[in-house]
Fold this sequence. Notes:
89 residues, Arc Repressor Mutant, subunit A, globular
Amino acid sequence: MVRRERWSVIGDILSAxxxxxxxxxxxxxxxxxxxxxxxxxxxxxxxxELESAGLIMRDSAFPEVTAKGHEFLRHYRTWTAVLDDFxxx
Length: 89
């Protein structure tokens, strides 16, 4: 089994939250964990870190990606596309 890089996990978590919101659904923590392929008990420390970095808001029970989080995702997706182009993903 290949271990994922930390930035990849963060990108997957933000993408999962964003995808749930874009489908008109409130992103439940269990759904985010499943979509990001992160164990439920390991997700909370990531969410706390993302919140302290200003990438998500957790004012309610459901996390939401901030403008800064959307910017991170844009850069993350660009970078992964570059890695794919060079066969380094």
